[in-house]
Amino acid sequence: METINWTDFGNLRVLIAVRLARCEEECRRKAAARETAGATRYSISATGSGDSLESIRKCLIGKQLPDNRPHPPNLRAKDPSFSARIMLAVNDRFAGNAPAVYNAAKSSRQTYSQIISDETHKVDKTTAIRFAFALQLSLQEAHTLLKSAGFAFSSSDRRDCILQACLEADPPVWNLDTVNLLLKEYDVDFQF
């Protein structure tokens, strides 16, 4: 089994340790919130006679929304799609060299072509993450790319915490083979 030479990665071990500590704290916080929610789930009290459905409905209907509430977002304004963001990044960072990107993402030409040719093509989270690494994105850019595909990094998932640390490191770790070694080093049962 290959091991990581940590001297090559500077502060990456510290970043991973901090991210994993946050991950564990988030898991504890969510577990405590679930326990609290379970204990208070049925303790709703409404004004009126008893806790009947009708009295709860009357209580909720009587509440008015404030007049200073924000206006709804413009639903016609559209953020760039996942495929549009990939095309822009390939053209900007790799001078249109698409094979370099989809090979680095460990993806086939057919998969890349499907993503690019159809704006509504749905990808899984793993594919979106592989393209974020292949495009050599910063952590913020990776968040934006994942969001455009309908995903996000989870603060309670060890794999996502390690991946975020890789993107946040100085210099960033974009090579998926190295990322796989890091995941194996931290006993995360996942490989790209």
Shape annotation: globular
- The share of residues in extended strands comes to under 5%
The helix/strand order is: HHHHHHHHH
Helix count equals: 9
Radius of gyration: 23 Å
The count of DSSP E runs of length 2 or more, i.e. the number of strands, is 0
End-to-end Cα distance, whole Å, is 17 Å
Average pLDDT taken over every residue = 82
Characterize the main sheet: none
Helical content band: 55-70%
* Low-pLDDT sequence parts: 41-49
Structural class: mainly alpha
Question: What topology does this entry show?
Answer:
Elements: H1 12-40, H2 53-61, H3 82-94, H4 98-104, H5 109-117, H6 125-134, H7 139-148, H8 158-168, H9 176-185
Write up this protein.
- The chain is an all-alpha fold.
- The protein is built from nine helices and no strands.
- Mean pLDDT is 82; it is low at 41-49.
